[in-house]
Each structure stands twice: as structure tokens, then as C-alpha cells.
Design goal:
The protein has 13 helices and 16 strands. It is α/β, with parallel strands linked by helices and 404 residues long. The chain has a five-stranded mixed β-sheet, sandwiched between helices. α2 crosses α3 and α6 packs across α13. The longest helix has 30 residues. The N terminus is likely disordered.
């Protein structure tokens, strides 16, 4: 069904959290009360964040968790109920005498989110998701080689179709796009799609008539790990597919960079000994070593050879280990610069898990100071193929409600 969103004159529009957007200027999650002049929007988000993270609670529970007074919580809860953002869900079961507390929770069944993942070179994928990041409906649109305005049209049509597929009001649309994306939702550069300075946010909003947030696909993916994958602290997600990119969270803030290209590690040359020719024209870029098509081509050539089985397996390990070592070289410098606590790798497990990831871990350990960086965890993501879609849901939650 079509949804009114923020422009419909509905409950949310009566007191939207104007100060919140998916920007580097603030932490993703509110974690304390603030000055009176900024308090109302912040404290509404603080209540929502507390419920989003913990589930149903009583008003007294929320007051204790947030440090706000019970009077303030009563007022905030009343306004959030009036805006249909939270709902009373029943009484707490208790054996104690007296009236049991009334539990409240985010109105999880009243809203859905539309997410688009434009990172694949063959198809655009989209989904209707719950506020908890679970996929309700999935749609795919074959690209059939479309670039430029044709690819834009496919993305816009997919978003519109998904809004129609939603069964309740659509809170907003999140889009994970390849390339460099600025804070206005403009794709500055996505060469594979032939996009330069494309106002993707505006194009989708004009048709879908709900709020839209657009970010780089790896920046979306790291949010999925942060909100739904249990990641904590300063972290980086490395996305390996047809290209290689990364999303970073430092001090609770998404890191975008001065030109919105933070995490664009795929075209950084790794080492000084040359290497495979990259699509960008340089030799030895991380993407040239690590991109999935390159790895599969090398592995297929080894398996098609006339070598004995044991030698084919040895060659396979050499290919994966070499790629893992190059990944480790690139990660070591980032770990040293940012003192990250966790690095998560997302991509095909049959290629990345095992030999390749082990080689990357060994290389990072060998190239950083154990005293300061020995505790960094490097692991595969458990979010699966929907990681970007789930991350776009977090973009909407953070940008429009101030929670993640």
C-alpha cells in the first residue's frame, strides 16, 4: 500500500525529530540527556533508542535507563503515543502485590521500511523490511546492462513498486549505492553505472513521496553489523564483491571523509612489487587482488589445468593466501591509524573464509604492534546476502527517528 510518511500530515509529521539525519555530525545513538534547548528531540530519540534496544519496558524502567525524571518520561511517552511511534503492549507479569506496570514498546507493527541494494552489477535488489531489519518482501530488477538514466529509472521504479508492496505505512526508503555518495543523497561517482552527480535521493523521493536516504553500500552494510550483528566499538566492514570497499564507524560516528570517499580502499595500490592490472589502469590495487571475479577466474584456471589434484589444491591455497596477505597489508595501516577494535569482512564465504581470512589476520598481526593492536578482532560477517538491505533500514531508523 502507498504510505503517507512525513509529508502526509499524519502523526509522525506533527513532531518529527528535525535535528536527526544520517550525518557525521552526531553519534548514531543518543546515550545521555542534553541541554534544555536541545532536549525535546534528543530525549524523544533517547526513549525510542532505549525501547529499540531493549524491547518492551515500563515507564519507570525507561526513567531509570535514561536518567530522565518520571515526569519527563510521562510527557515524552504521551507525545510518542500520540504520534503512533510507541504503543502500550500490556501489563507486566508479576507475583508482587499491587497493580502491575504497563509495558510500552516501539510500534513495530505499524511501520515498515523500504531498502534498495544497488551494489550488484547484474540486478538491483530491494525489500520491504520490518523495523527490526527482517525482510518481508523481496524484489529484483535485472539491469540488462543499463547505465546512466536507464539505471536511474530502474532504481526509481523498484522503489515505487516496493512502497506499493508494503502492508503498513512506510517510514522511509534507504538506498545503498556503489560509488561515492555525498550527504545530500547525490551519487558523485559510480563508474559501473555511468553515474556522475546523480541526485538519486531527489529522483526517488519525487516518485515515491516518502523520505529517502542514500549512502554508499559499504557504509550501509557496516550499520547492519552495528545494529543487528552485535558489533560494538570502533569498527570497519570490508565489503568484497565485484569491487572492494569499506564502511567505518569511529566513536559512534559514521566516517565519510572530506570528499565522502572514506573507505574507498579498493583502488589503493598494495605493495611496491606491481601486481595484477586493475580496471582503473593501475597495477596492484587491492581490488585487482581481491575482487570476486578476479579470484574466481584464477581458481577456475587452476582447476582446469592438468595438474594433479594435490597440486591444484596447493595452487588454490596460494591464490587465496596471496589475496589475503594483500588485504592484511591494507588493513594493517588502517588498524594502526585508527586503533580499531573490530574488522568484519562481508562477501562469498567459500572464497573469503578460511585460507584468505587467516592470511589477512596473520599479516595484520605481523605488521602492527601487539601491545596496542593485538586485540583487534577480524571475522566474517554473519549477516548474509541481505546485509546492505538491512543496513539501509538502519539508515532510515537513524535518520528519521534517531535510533539504530
Amino acid at each position: 500500500m502507498s504510505a503517507g510518511g512525513f509529508g502526509s500530515g499524519g502523526g509522525i509529521a506533527s513532531e518529527r525529530i528535525e535535528s536527526f539525519s544520517y550525518t557525521p555530525a552526531r553519534r548514531l545513538r543518543p546515550n545521555a540527556k542534553v541541554l534544555p534547548e536541545h532536549a525535546r528531540g534528543h530525549n524523544r530519540a533517547l526513549v525510542l533508542q532505549t525501547l529499540f534496544a531493549s524491547g518492551a519496558m515500563s515507564r519507570a524502567d525507561i526513567a531509570r535507563a535514561t536518567g530522565l525524571t518520571r515526569v519527563s518520561i510521562s510527557d515524552l511517552v504521551a507525545s510518542l503515543i500520540a504520534d503512533n511511534l510507541i504503543v502500550e503492549v500490556g501489563l507486566r507479569e508479576t507475583s508482587r502485590p499491587g497493580k502491575p506496570a504497563t509495558l510500552i514498546d516501539i510500534n513495530r507493527d505499524e511501520f515498515q521500511i523500504v531498502g534498495l541494494d544497488l551494489s550488484d552489477t547484474e540486478v538491483f535488489r530491494g525489500a520491504v523490511l520490518t523495523l527490526d531489519g527482517e525482510v518481508v518482501t523481496m524484489l529484483e530488477v535485472p539491469l540488462d546492462g543499463a547505465t546512466g538514466v536507464d539505471a536511474i529509472a530502474k532504481a526509481v521504479a523498484l522503489a515505487a513498486d516496493l512502497v506499493e508492496e508494503a502492508t503498513v505505512e512506510v517510514l522511509g526508503i534507504g538506498v545503498g549505492s556503489p560509488g561515492v555518495v555525498d550527504m545530500t543523497g547525490t551519487v558523485r561517482s559510480a563508474p559501473n553505472l555511468g553515474w556522475t552527480d546523480v541526485d538519486l535521493q531527489g529522483a526517488i523521493e519525487q516518485v515515491a513521496q516518502v523520505p529517502v536516504l542514500v549512502a554508499n553500500d559499504a557504509n550501509a552494510a557496516v550499520l547492519a553489523e552495528y545494529s543487528f550483528g552485535g558489533a560494538d566499538g570502533d569498527l570497519m566492514l570490508v565489503s568484497v564483491g565485484n569491487g572492494v570497499g569499506a564502511g567505518l564507524l569511529v566513536g559512534g560516528h559514521p566516517l565519510f571523509g572530506s570528499r565522502f570517499a572514506a573507505g574507498e580502499i579498493g583502488h589503493v595500490v598494495v605493495g611496491t612489487d606491481g601486481g595484477p592490472l586493475c580496471a582503473c589502469g593501475k597495477r596492484g590495487c587491492l581490488e585487482a587482488w581481491l575482487a570476486v571475479p578476479h579470484l574466481r577466474e584464477l581458481l577456475a584456471a587452476a582447476e582446469a589445468s592438468d595438474l594433479p589434484t594435490a597440486e591444484v589444491e596447493q595452487r588454490r591455497e596460494e591464490i587465496l593466501r596471496a589475496a589475503g596477505e594483500r588485504l592484511g597489508v591494507s588493513l594493517a595501516a588502517i588498524v594502526g591509524a585508527l586503533n580499531l577494535s573490530e574488522i568484519i569482512v562481508s562477501g562469498p564465504e567459500e572464497l573469503l573464509a578460511g585460507v584468505l581470512l587467516d592470511a589477512a589476520i596473520e599479516t595484520v598481526r605481523a605488521r602492527t604492534m601487539t601491545e596496542f593492536h593485538g586485540g583487534v578482532q577480524i571475522r566474517m560477517s554473519e549477516q548474509g546476502a541481505d546485509i546492505v538491505l538491512r543496513g539501509t533500514a538502519v539508515m532510515v531508523l537513524s535518520g528519521l527517528l534517531g535510533v539504530s
